[in-house]
Amino acid sequence: MNGYIALLGSGEYLSVMDEVDKFLLANCGAKDRKPKVVCLPTAAGQESDASVNRWMKMGVDHFTRLGADVQAVPVTDKESADEQKHASAVEEADVVYFSGGSPLYLYETMKDSLVWKSAMKAFERGGVYAGCSAGAMILGKEMPNFRMLGLNNVSAFGYVPAVIIPHFDATPMLFKPIINAARSRLKENDLMIGIDDNTAMVGRNGEWTVMGKSGVHVFTKNNSKSYAVGEKFNL
């Protein structure tokens, strides 16, 4: 990826992310024209039509308010992820935005799909990847396998060399053991990153800045360090 990456703990399409999204629109490669944004509700593809439609409407309303040329593309399963019209829309985008839902479903739906291949073309030319919650997790090296109650990790796309945990400061007690187990599986030099709610880590080429409302936490097996809004760190 040659452009910026924004990984959010939560807050997609809400005003709390205005600063983040304005930065992305200003740095997505669009010159002398409105930036083109594509919003993908894929992670919610197993939910109701009402839920999918709500995510699409939120994305369109949010980025229209910020002055972008935005469309929501209804990719919700493997079949729609291989539709050429959807792939073409994604390839032409300056910002490709994945909202939240199931990280495993999102990864399995995107893997080897025409839409994902088109997204890669957009990113290679300098377009922005933005992903919230599930959309953030799939860019990591691995993800906790929630289907197995976090007893093992499953592969992700690996563009960020870490296991990524969203909603970090709001994780319910039920899921604390899953996070602890994921950390216990870290090997030497492995990383786990916790991103708080309403917070984003934004960067490229391994250099990151914390934006939003709270913090980002970087863990090794035995150590950790937290970064507040405005602080920078390298991976």
Helix proportion range? 25-40%
The CATH superfamily turns out to be Class I glutamine amidotransferase (GATase) domain
Structural class: alpha/beta
* Rg, Cα atoms, Å: 16 Å
Residue-averaged pLDDT: 95
Please provide the ordered H/E string of secondary-structure elements.
Answer: EHEHEHHEHHEHEEEHEEEEEE
CATH topology term:
Rossmann fold
The number of distinct helices, counting runs of at least 4 residues, comes to 8
Low-confidence stretches: none
Number of strands: 14
Q: Overall 3D geometry? A: globular
**Looking across the biggest beta sheet, what order are the strands in?**
3-2-4-5-1-10-11-14
| Secondary-structure arrangement, i.e. CATH architecture | 3-Layer(aba) Sandwich
CATH class call: Alpha Beta
Number of domains: 1
The largest pleated sheet is described as: 8 strands, mixed
Q: What is the straight-line distance between the termini?
A: 15 Å
- Beta-strand percentage? 25-35%
